[in-house]
Amino acid sequence: MNFISAPTANPSTEAMIESLQHWWSLAGVELGYADQPAALLEAEPVIPATPAPPVQAATEPLTAEVRAPVRNEVLPGGYEDFMTWLSEDQGLVEASWSRQRVMPHGVLAPEVMIVCALPEKNRNGEAQLFNADNQKLLERMLSAIGCDSGQTYIASIAVSAPADGRIDEQHWPSLKNRLLHHVGLVGPKRIICFGDLAAKIIFGEDMLTARKNKQFINHESSQTEAIVTFHPRILIERPLFKAEAWKDLQMLTRISAP
């Protein structure tokens, strides 16, 4: 038995060229030259596509962002009618905050009108303009500038206080307009504004900025001098501020002796 195979014929030149071209194609030799070396068998890196900007859907604003329209309060022209309106009208800005309304009190055409932003509660939970401790300090402050309780008028910008002690800014214009009307009806010679919230509502500045200079409140056809200073509550909590409050009080025109 013959175990010798017959000689195999040499491949033609065309076949060799075709074979090399096929290998080159598999190896990627026919592609353009790259500056950076790369492994032939390594998977091609995935290039992340640039995300398209999200389409802004036309949606209604969130309920929490929707502000109620500012109320245009119809203000009674006479003082007595104005007091009745403050005590009874259910359309006031603060009508939904509390059932307790604290009315202003004092003499008309006073030497000094005291203005705070909100009533406060005493130890029994009753709302009033100033609790007993703050009232005593207030009287001493007034006495220091030659004014007694019989020459004053005390009021808060809002007659009721919300539970969190804050007033939404959307209500500030209405409350300021009401206060200016109130000042015009009372006719004070000087005004002392207590606290940061009162300063922001009336003058559009925080207390520390507003207290740097004497202020003026324009109402109807008149202008009344005013200052801004620390609320008595703050002075009791931080006695070091009493010296600063005294500086504020000294900016007021001196009260003549009766």
Overview of the structural elements:
A hairpin with a 2-residue loop joins β7 and β8 (222-229). The strands form two sheets. A six-stranded mixed sheet has the order 1-5-2-6-8-7. It has a domain at 96-249: Uracil-DNA Glycosylase, subunit E. It contains eight helices and eight strands, in the order ααββββαβαβααββαα. It is α/β, with parallel strands linked by helices and 258 residues long.
Task: Summarize the topology.
Layout: H1 13-27, H2 79-88, E1 105-106, E2 112-116, E3 120-121, E4 127-128, H3 132-144, E5 152-156, H4 172-186, E6 190-194, H5 196-203, H6 207-210, E7 215-219, E8 222-229, H7 232-237, H8 242-249
Parallel strand pairs: 2-5, 2-6, 6-8
Antiparallel strand pairs: 1-5, 3-4, 7-8
The CATH architecture name of the domain at 96-249 reads 3-Layer(aba) Sandwich
Q: In CATH terms, what is the fold-level topology of the domain at 96-249?
A: Uracil-DNA Glycosylase, subunit E
Query: Could you list the spans in which at least 5 consecutive residues all have pLDDT below 50?
Result: 1-8, 23-42, 57-69
**Estimated structural class:** alpha/beta
For this structure, the quaternary state is single chain
- Record the strand order, biggest sheet: 1-5-2-6-8-7
**CATH class of the domain at 96-249, anyone?**
Alpha Beta
Largest sheet: 6 strands, mixed
Helix-strand string:
HHEEEEHEHEHHEEHH
